[in-house]
Amino acid sequence: MADADRDALLAVVVEENRHLRAENAELREAVAARDARLERAAADLDAAVATIQDLSAQVATLQRMVFGRSSERNGPGGKAGDGGDGGRPPGQKQRGKSGNRRRDYSRLPRAEVIWDFDDGPPCCERCGMLFTALNSDDCCEQIDWQVLIRMIVHRRRRYRRGCRCPGPVTVTAPGPPKAIGKGLVTNGFIARLLAERYVSGRSQHSITAGLARDGAEISGATLAGTVKAAGVLLAPLEDAIAARSRDSWHLHADETTWHVFTPADGDGPARWWLWVFLGPDTVCFVMECATRRCCFRMEVGDLHRLAVAAAG
After folding, report:
1. In whole angstroms, what is the distance from residue 248 CA to residue 252 CA?
2. What's the chain's average pLDDT?
3. Does 312 have pLDDT greater than 50?
């Protein structure tokens, strides 16, 4: 083969190789673009599936809120269209399942906590490419129970007079309102203590142990002194409740024996009487014996409102 022919053939091969390399590069770019589109489509599909799941859960919740026990309409013993009552006569309520309805916790304050990987977004174990974040997160709800007992430090600002006019040289800003003058606890603590004792019916030992578990080791004597001082403050409320009870147009009354430890009257417990007077909106308790009389009257609704007002 002549040199001229060999050079011409080599030029053709080189040109064809150049075209093949260019075509190979274009195909690689097309494949990379297709892979990127597939990854974006997979991410969009995952986001759409998550959104559908969230919407399905919301629709199921709304259906339960609107239609009640809709899943029981076609259950055993019921017929379609009878409301799932199992053939009960109209107007007759189903017994024994009043506590199975779904509770509404929308009034509770909400807080969000973000959970993520410690080292950032994960990556593929083979190629090392980072994962892309979806538009929706996997969410779940839990009810948290926290008890906050804190020591509040009240700083009252003091000022000195800059002039020579007559009057006090220094003045101090007013402090917080105190139901008990030199008491250790706040008004909100007193209201919570009274509500726990006389609304929830907890004993003093139970309250003391509960405070200790939450980090506040308050002695029982302090709590007893607080309740005693607060009882003096509630005396006007006690008299008003008793007066309203006496003016009620209708009362229910009952009594029972009540053994009281009175060492001054004898060696052992003395038999007292505990009376209860139930009116339309009042409840009065009276403890009395033949020699002396001790009255305790408490209306639960007023005490609860007092606790809520003090805590607020």
Report:
1. 10
2. 79
3. no
pLDDT in tens, 191-250: 999 999 988 999 999 999 999 999 899 999 999 999 999 988 888 988 899 899 988 888
pLDDT tens digits, 93-124: 555 555 567 788 888 888 888 888 888 888 88
Q: What number of residues does the chain have?
A: 312
Q: What is the pLDDT of residue 168?
A: 87
